[in-house]
Write a structure and sequence with these properties.
The complex is a heterodimer of chains A (356) and B (501). With 356 residues, chain A is an all-alpha fold. Chain A has one domain. Chain A starts with 15 loop residues before the first helix and ends with a helix. Chain B has 501 residues and is of the alpha/beta class. Helix content of chain B is 35%, strand content 26%. Chain B starts with a strand and ends with a helix. The chains are: A mainly alpha (356), B alpha/beta (501). The interface between A and B is large, with 34 and 59 residues.
Chain lengths: 356, 501
Amino acid sequence: MVRAPVPERDVSLSSNAERLRNVFRHPLIPVLVVIVILLLFGRILSPGFLGMANIGNILATSTILALAGLGQTFVIIGGGEGIDLSVGALVSLGAILGGAFSNGVNAGLLPALGLLILLGGFVGFLNGMGVQWIGVPPLVMTLGMASVVDGFALAYTNGQPTGGAPPVLLSIGTGHLFGDIRWLIPMGIVIAIIGYLVLNRSRFGHQLQLVGNNRQAARLSGLPLRNIIIASYIIAGIASILAGVLLLGYAGSSDLQIGNSYTLLSIAAVVIGGTKLTGGEGSYIGTVLGAMALIVLTNVLVAMKLPEGAREVLEGLALVAILVAYTRRRGAHRQSRRPRMLANTLKGEAQKWKSE
Amino acid sequence: MLVCDSISKRYGSVVALRSANLKVQPGEIHAILGGNGSGKSTLAKIMAGTVQPDGGTIHWNGVPLRIMNPVSATKSGIAVTFQELSLLGNLTVAENICFPAMPTRLGRVQVARMRERVHPLLKDLELEGMEDVLVDHLPSGYQYLVEYAKALFRNPDILVLDEITSALHREQVTRITQSIRALAERGTAVLFVSHRLPEIFSLCDGVTVFRNGENVGTFRTGEVSANQLLALMTGDPNAVDTTAALDGEPYTLAPRSASLEVESLPVRSHKISLSIRSGEIVGIAGIQGQGQSELVRRLFGMHGVVTVTLNGKIVRIGSPRSAVRQGFAFVSGDREHEGTFAQHSLSTNASCVGQFIFHRKAMDIKAEFDRMHVHYHRLSQKMQELSGGNQQKVVLTRWTSVHPAILLADDPTKGVDVAARHEVHQMFVALAESGTAIVMVSSDEEELVALASMYPLMRVLVMYDGTFVQELKGAEVTLQSLIEASIPQEDNHVISQAENL
């Protein structure tokens, strides 16, 4: 019943110094700093790190994570402890079924995409209904859904995914548009713009942010709370499964666990991007930058030329360190216990992921 | 003697306390008076150890107190009651009072001993027999009494009471003031943080006024007038105590376009019927927890489907959303949970209903804010930067901009300072004059009296145990009549229940 103290006075400072300070308080500053530091670190380790080829590679891989993080951003901004732990399972499913439905031929790709969008949307719809109609906590609902999706993939493929990426998809995933510019880069830019427009310029996005900031006030203002939340999960389902298709194009073929790390990575990208885990506040551009930061991190670790095992341990530790730094920073002036609680869950997930 | 010397506290760029000084003798009951945002609550939180000051010292009888956290505050002999309550809803009254030092043997809580220990306290506050009731199951007035008992249980040298009486009805206030007096006689220094001038004059020995985080004056209560205090509080030398002197403004009757008929609306175990005409303000009075809130919330579709007659048409309301679409509006006194979008801009806060429900494109929010006397800097500034009274005015703008047929308000001026409260009342009157029918629940009788004298077309329905026990109109609305009606005589109550069978 104790509420956190809230500053009581009106603010009346608008001097230049204050404005400058506000620039540095911009929520995107930390993620940019993280990216720059990691890039410089990578440059020290390997002279070719900042070359066009590598940067192009980093941007291209970020696209897949940024797409998986799109839905995660929406769900988390919607608040009410919203989180989607079925992202990874859906990415895997997208990769597996993308190959299976299209049979590895170009002509099969469009129908496969159509089917996958319906399927992803349906899974997201079930998540949303479970959370908003039945009242299952999002953590439980989406984690349960993740194992249902995993099981479905296993049953469908009998453990042996068939059909690789159709040639068109393969050239989108690995091919170059011109020079060092890979197809995935303009695609990533388009995804970032769409995500930004939906969240910050559309009616739906504005309402989602209000709902995330204060559920009860949104409900009492007559906003269609239930539909908005369900829509955010549907978007998450579709974005995740499409990220799986892109991943198939990038990797060429799929296995059952191909996308499973994306659950944690997508949440990490959202958090690093400055979106509050309590909802209501955040940006998709932040998530895109967060995805880049994570991919740069992976590349730095690769550049360190460590053995596979050691690299994964380091990656896990770095992720935990970043998340701790983030939640600490927030905890210091927010006095809200939930982000820290979730951060602990994430740390647990990170350990698990690291040990796999 | 308690001496607070130049205490300061900033939240980011917001200065909550500038350089606050305060002296209180042992055995003195000292009032801290100030508008919202004056820093009085911050001072209470610093005393409680939940907020760390940026600077300044606190001495008790010459000994410096180092209050690092709530535990060291308790050790220093300080007990604080919070306006937001510090109780755990799923523990019993006795457990809450003893918490965290519940008597145990081998790790097991000794319930009987605990009951024994809290019994005399509860007896003093006439809460006997409530030892084992879960706090969540108590009406909010009683919860404040338990909060008070909890502070008392620590035998404090310094007792800080933050708006302890704001949710209590008169009888409970009497009970608690007797207890405070007895405590002061035993040498406890009592800091009484309050908005309510009459209580301060009747209870306190001294009073300190805070404005903008500073002490702007300390007086003996016998040597200062209510208007002097009010002028200090607002910084406006012409401020008058609106609860005492009221101007009966002339009004013109708006065309009566809307009316609301409600029949057998289930509230508690009773069924309520209500008829409201356009341009009317209906106050709902009564002691706390008699179903007043439930009535307006039910009407707004928050507790399932209700059917009402609006302008002669039968309307089904299944959710707040459908209520809003039918022309209902709802303002809650619990701004933090039910009103504001703290992280969003003032313009979003003011325009969300118009934009998202009624698809209005352009709205002149600036003009609305000027009309409502909202004090702000930029429309893009975040809602959380405003003080409580201003926030409530912005929330009201959200509704006034769409001209609702019916405005339902649940204690809309709770925790709003005197000046802002008056402005909210003026907004209500203006809205009623433009044809809106207003139903306003209030736990503050003085507020209803003030509003009734501003707006002759006002009546007050007094609720008791889920039914209306009395209707008062125009000049009949006085403090006396409201209080009398709020606490019905035993047979009265029986009759009203019998009528409902």
